[in-house]
Amino acid sequence: MKIGIIGGGAIGLLCASYLSQQHDITVFTRRNEQAKEIRASGIERTVRGETFRAVAHADTGVKGIFDLLIVTVKYHHLQDVLDELSTLPRQRILFLQNGMAHLLDLENWKTAHQLYIGVVEHGAMKVSDHAVAHTGIGVIKWGAFHHKEAADVRNELNETSAHFQMVYTDEWKKVLEEKLLVNVCINPLTALLHVKNGELIANASYEYMMKCAFEEAVSVLGLSEKERLWSHVVSICDKTAANQSSMLQDIVKGRQTERKAIVGYLLKQAQAQEILTPHLAFFNRSLEVLEKKQTKSFE
Amino acid sequence: MKIGIIGGGAIGLLCASYLSQQHDITVFTRRNEQAKEIRASGIERTVRGETFRAVAHADTGVKGIFDLLIVTVKYHHLQDVLDELSTLPRQRILFLQNGMAHLLDLENWKTAHQLYIGVVEHGAMKVSDHAVAHTGIGVIKWGAFHHKEAADVRNELNETSAHFQMVYTDEWKKVLEEKLLVNVCINPLTALLHVKNGELIANASYEYMMKCAFEEAVSVLGLSEKERLWSHVVSICDKTAANQSSMLQDIVKGRQTERKAIVGYLLKQAQAQEILTPHLAFFNRSLEVLEKKQTKSFE
C-alpha cells in the first residue's frame, strides 16, 4: 500500500520503519529540517541492540492520496492536523493518539474520510530526527471508528513484521479505556510526585492516592471488573517500576503533557454525567500549574 | 523591659515597632545591611493608612542579656538560632514560629533558658528592610512551654498597645493546633492549585480535597469538635477569600515554604502513631517538587 504517516515523533518513526518493509511510506513532519534528514539518511530503528535502516519519502504538511494515512501526532496537535486533512480527498485514516479526548473531536468532525482508531502498545523513544529506539515490543490494536468496512486494509496490515503486529479488533474502545485507566493512574501522580512508576506501589500513601484516581476513572468510564483492572494497574507499575512515565518526562523536559487527552477527557465525561471527581480535578489543575511553571506571577 | 527580637521579617519588625512604645528594643538580623538600615531609619509601621516610626537598636547575630528574647525567624532558620542561643546566659525566650515542628526541636533542646511559645494572629507584610504593613490586627496568644513561672513577664506584656495585645493562656497548645489545622487545610492546596483562598470553597472538588487533608490532620492531632473545626476552616477561607496564602506567595516568589513546619510536623506525628495520611504525604512531596523546581533533572 501507499501509506502516509503524519508526525515524526517516536511512534511515527516506528510505524514508518516497520511498515516500509511491505509498503511505500511517506512521513509528513512539521519541520522541513526533519523531512530533509529522513530523505537524506532514511530512518534508523534500534531494537534489542540491532540497528535497521529503512527508506521513506518525507515531506512537510499533508498532501496527496494514500491507501492509508496514519496520524501519530500528540493530541494537542491533532486539531491542526484535522484542519489539514479536511482539505484532502476522501481516504482511510488511522488515528493513534493516547488518551481518549480525540474520540470527541472525531465525533464532531464533519468529514467524508473513513476513520480508524488504534491503540499503540509499543515502547518507543525518539533518538534523533531520523532515529527511534524500539524499547518495548507490543502490538497495535485497531478497528473501524464508525462503519464496518475494514476488510481490505485489514488484510494488508496482517502482513507486518513479527515485532510490529497490527491486530484488528471490534473491541478497540475497551482497549482504549483500559489503557486510559492505566495512564490516568500512573501518569499524573508520577509527574506531580516526581517518582518512577514503581514508587506508586512501594509507598502505601502513593498507592492510596492512585486508588482514589482509579475509583474515579472507573466510575466515569462505567467499567466493571474493578478487581481485575486494579490488579492490571498494579502489575503495570510493577513491570515498569524503573521507568519514568511519559508525563514525568514531559514535565522534566518542559514539554506540554498529554494531560488534556487523558485527565481532560475524563473530567469532560464526569461533568456530562455529573460525577464528582475531586482527585482527577486536583491532578489536572496542579499539572497545569506545573506545565505552565506558573511560579512567577499570579494570573 | 530590655527586649531582643531575633529576625527582621514581617513579624520581627511588627513586634519591634509596637513593643518599642513601652520597652527598650534591639532587633537582631541576619544581614548587616538590614541592621544598619534599622539603626539609621528606625522602623516604619503602616496600619490603616497611618504610618508610625519607632526607634530600635539593631545588630547582627545574637548577643547580650535581655529580660525577654523573642524569636521570630521562620522554622527553617530556627536550628541556627537555637545553636546561637545555646551560647548565651540563661534568659527568657518566646518562640513565635508557625506550624508545630518547633515544639519537637524545643523538646529535644538541652538548655537552661526559660521557654515560652506564642501564636501570632496578626496579618503583616514586610515592605522593606525597615518597614512593615500591619494588614490584620489580631493578638499574640502565648504561654510557658514547660514550667509555670510566667507571672513577671506576663504583667509587663499586659501593657502593650490596643492593636498589639499579648494574651497569656495555658491553652497555647490548643491554639497552636487549631492554627496548624487551618494552615494545613489552606496552604498546601492553594500553593499546588495556584488559587486564592476563596477558591477552595467555591469549587466542590477542591473543597473535597481540603476535607481529605482536614480529616487526616484532625485524626493525627486527636482533636474532637470536628464540626466546629470544619466550620472554622471554611469561615477562614471565606473571610480571606481574596488572599493568596503565604505558601502560595512563597512558591510564586521562589522562596522556601513553611512545608516542614506545617505538613512535615503532621507527617512525623502520623508516622509515630502509625496513622496513614496519604493526602498529607502527597501534598508534602509535591510541594517539595514545586519548591525545588525539580523540573529539570531526575534525581
TrEMBL record, chains A, B:
Pfam families per UniProt: ApbA (PF02558), ApbA_C (PF08546)
Entry's Gene Ontology cellular component terms: cytoplasm
EC number of this enzyme: 1.1.1.169
Keyword line: NADP, Oxidoreductase, Pantothenate biosynthesis
Catalytic activity: (R)-pantoate + NADP(+) = 2-dehydropantoate + NADPH + H(+)
Pathway as given in its UniProt record: Cofactor biosynthesis; (R)-pantothenate biosynthesis; (R)-pantoate from 3-methyl-2-oxobutanoate: step 2/2
InterPro entries: 6-PGluconate_DH-like_C_sf, 6PGD_dom2, ApbA, Ketopantoate_reductase, KPA_reductase, KPR_N, NAD(P)-bd_dom_sf
Any one Gene Ontology molecular-function term assigned to this protein's record: 2-dehydropantoate 2-reductase activity
Domain named Ketopantoate reductase N-terminal: residues: 3-145
GO BP, one annotated term: pantothenate biosynthetic process
Ketopantoate reductase C-terminal domain segment(s): 174-283
Family statement: Belongs to the ketopantoate reductase family.
Job of this protein: Catalyzes the NADPH-dependent reduction of ketopantoate into pantoic acid.
Name used for this protein in its record: 2-dehydropantoate 2-reductase
